[in-house]
Amino acid sequence: MTTLTDPPKASFRLSMLLYDTRYRSTTIQVIALMGFMLGAAWLINNVAVNLAAAGKPFTFGFLSDASGYDINQKLIEYNSQSSHLRAAVVGLLNTLLVAVMGCTLATFLGVFIGVLRLSSNWVISRLAAVYVEGFRNVPVLLWIVLIMAATSHSAPQPKDFRGDNPSATMKIFDSVAITNRGVYFPEPLFSNSLGDVAMFPDSSTEACEAYAAESDDDKVIKLAKSCGSFQISLDLIAIGSVFIACLMISKLVANRASQIQAQTGVRPTVWYLRLGIVAIPTIITLWILGFYLGYPELKGFNFKGGIYMRSSLLALWIALSLYTAAFIAEIVRAGIMAISKGQSEAAGALGIRPGRTMSLVVLPQAMRVIFPPLISQYLNLTKNSSLAIAVGYMDVTGTLGGITLNQTGREMETILLLMACYLIISLIVSTVMNAYNERTKLKER
Amino acid sequence: MSITSDQSYVRTEMLTEKAPPSTNVGIIGWIRANLFSSWLNVVLSLLAMYAIYSTLAYILPWVFGGVWNATSLTECRIVIAEAIGDGHTAGRACWAVIHERFWQLMYGFYPSDQYWRPNLALILLFVAIAPVLFNGLPKKMLLISVAFPFVAPWLLWGGAIWTPLMAFMGFVIGYFVHKFASKIAGSLVGIILGTVSALLWWLLFSSAVSQGISHMIGASRMSGEIERLETSIPLQEAEVGRHQAIVDPLEGQVIAIQEEIDAAVSAEKPVADLIRTKTPLYLTLGSASSDLSKEQDMLNVMRARLTAIKSLPKDETRSQQLADAAIAARAALPASVAKLTDVKEANLGTSAEDKDQLEAALKVEGESGSLQDRIETLYQDVGLVGLKPVKSRDFGGLMLAVLLGITGIGLSFPLGIVLALGRLSDLVIVKALCVGFIEFIRGVPLITLLFVASVLLNYFLPKGTEFDIILRVMIMITIFAAAYMAEVIRGGLAALPKGQYEAADALGLDYWQAQRLIIMPQALKISIPGIVSTFIGLFKDTTLVSIIALLDILGWAKTIQATSDWNGVIWELYGFIAFVFFIFCFSMSRYSMYLERKLQTGH
Questions:
Q1: Please, what is the end-to-end C-alpha distance for chain B in angstroms?
Q2: What is the pTM of this model?
Q3: CB-CB contact of A90 with A71 (8 Å)
Q4: For the residues of B178-210, what is the DSSP string, one character each?
Q5: Where are the alpha helices (DSSP H) in B201-311?
Q6: Where is the domain boundary, B361, B383, B405?
Q7: Structural domain ending residue among the three candidates B311, B345, B373
Q8: Which residue of chain B is at minimal alpha-carbon distance from A39?
Q9: Per the count of CB atoms within 10 A, which of A236, B221, B266, B587 is most buried?
Q10: CB nearest B344 (choices: A29, A53, A139)
Q11: How many C-alpha atoms does B101 have within 13 Å on its Cβ side?
């Protein structure tokens, strides 16, 4: 008869670190961590030695120096006396501007092309396929420089608009001027303006004050005095808040209509009510503020007034949108095709019309498939907007990673900041996206 | 009892099938179903066809009626205007710019007599990857695949034949050390020792050994080289004269015909034929004068080398003296500055005399170093057994894009697999490192990484390290693509059913065996579309190097547009480049579709 005894306890030997699976993973990790830390320490040490040798201590002090260069496309007040930091902010806002514009246009275009590609009409679906293959297989940088070169070579010069019988005229009721330097739109102006409010006015630097003191021009003084701050238009805030309030009331009306529909089965017609609720107060606000459009006018060698969109911004916007739309079209197509045919057949069996089948049955389910890759395309577009540097649009790569880098010679700090900007944008967007995905996930048991 | 048998109205055999209505089959049926199925579709089809027609009616004559023979945009426009008959010159393409600048667009400044080297490298690439792409080829072809990574850089950059051999030696040494050490101390120690010994060889010894061999050969050839140069310099002079004799009359002819053209233009006579005769002459003149300058350069190199060799004994004595002087100057330095290599590194309190002394010592050291470099360069040049070296600066055009694309694809794929495995690993630290790396790289645009390559990388390396710009860009493109590749492969790994992992465990396979034999083949197959689209993205992204002043094909387009002859050529150049990229990328995506179908095992 045998008795059960515990197996002999092996005492720990050094070789077990390598050959015993219980310890091996720890060994490997410790070695990996040590290797990583040694490598990082070596790199950091090299950087410290090299920066010291080059006489460039690692500080961000240069950011508060006057930048000394001008930026031609800007969303906030900026002049050459403003700091490098402000130049970077102007650039970052320009990046966000082209990213938002690009994402919007690319989404509309992409959804449109994606739906066309699924069309039962052979010619239409082939055309959409040609679009997608054509744009996907050619580098986006090529599209950007091509569109830039084409607009600046073939659009008329401002001087062509001059004279009694000009060779070029303004488009859309004489309101939009398309020139080789960019496009001029009418700008919204207010005759009873509420004025602007400066945020963080205390941060204006001495350089700005000095610049303001030297200058005679009213506009320059105003601009220079505010050069450490951000101006926020009260008019826009007023209109925006009225509009949003109206939208919320209109939503309440819609909810009420749905309630009635649920109780009685008949939906009351409320669209004109909702339209009135949104439109009338907004129009009244605009009227009180004295809204009018400021048209661009040819003065001297160039157009004055209106909103000026440089051809570099235009080229970047169009090229990024066309390119990304090709990818979005494929995502939309894949999303719609991923919904099983049974869903639309079931909807048909319930007597739902094809259009409503798409909007009520297929698209809500397809959105779950479409959304994650769509967001990653938005991120790609934002990152691709850094190619602005090829056409001279002053995004954050152009200001911080371009002129600021060249003027201050601080490669290490500027490029690290530049990377941090893009990383933060990416991380914010992907956090939001993960939260959304979590919320819309299929609840399965 | 049967009920059906007496129900005589039930048909017992099937009716024969009737042909469908003629409007529902064949071409008519297809057109009705696909083009005119509803009123909306009728309108859409007609509109789309009209749009296609009007686009093609503009583009086809533009493309196929283009002008190939002209030497500048102005001439092009003249020829087009005469051909069409009115002032509308934008209706025909000016392909002459592609005709004239084709080789620059393809190879950049790569020496034209060496074009065979990149071509051969490309052919070798196809031979080398053939055993990977297709099964059923002889096993011996794998030898070419093994040799390719060593031969290709040597073909492209040139230099002594020892260099690739020495690089290969590293693997041989590593292999033998591994084999020997694993017998004694186990496989893990063997792997570590093998890797370390190979790294040591590459970092410390290989370039020294290969330079030493060249130096020895150079020393033995030195006396013979004088004789060879003395006999060949007159021959080369004659050669230069011969080329001069070709160029001069050609130049005369071109000038004459140009005058004729100018006269005809001012007299408003047709000049298209004159321009057509001028173009081939002009192109021949271009290649003839580039030949001439090449021969002239060669002559200058020979003369310079002859002088250098003749003064070699004197230089070597002087070099010895300088080296001694440098050592003495360094030894005489005061303690506070004795170890510095730059005046800027001196402390604030250092006195002016000390600084002056340091500066003087540095000057002597610099002189000695540059003279030694010159002598060594001479030895290396004379002792060169191999191909003419080509500098990285001269790489350009489409060749650069293909080079960056292929190395990026080849290196990012294995790196991506490793990163994906690391990200899915149970080892917490390894996982954290991989996640951090992948998310960082994916969060920043490639252009910032290229900035790092062009201005920042030197800060991360020990002082004085010179690092080839193309190599730096290659590294950045590779790690950029590898991060995306890792995510694609991670998707494939996540899509595998858990049973596959469990089955591998049940069979008693260890981690690497399971990955190699069971997991990876399936995961990679699932992720083929993603992998290929990453490859395509990488190939397209190589154009970004034009922003950091490397002359790839897009960079050349800008350079050509900046010349006075071709200022204003847009659609032809960019259209051509877009076409080239389209061909590459589209065929890659078609190949991936073919591969997916070939590997499909489902139903």
A1: 46
A2: 0.85
A3: yes
A4: HHHHHHHH-HHHHHHHHHHHHHHIIIIIIHHHH
A5: 207-266, 272-310
A6: B383
A7: B311
A8: B460
A9: B221
A10: A53
A11: 29
